[in-house]
Hints:
Strand content: 25-35%
Helix content: 25-40%
Shape: flat
Mean pLDDT: 89
Order of helices and strands: EEEH
Low-confidence stretches: none
Number of strands: 3
Largest sheet: 3 strands, antiparallel
Radius of gyration: 12 Å
Amino acid sequence: MPVTVRKIPVKGNKDWAIVEVSTGQIKGRSTTKAKAQASANARNASKHGFKPTRR
């Protein structure tokens, strides 16, 4: 399922939530929008067959 980033006030100063679009369930939390967006991009890519590799 695709995920998106939303600003949600939550505990522990982690204001950005990674939310599943279809269910609205919070899949992760982050302190900055950039980190949350990077996590959401990685989660979406893994659903489409992307396998991370390092060189």
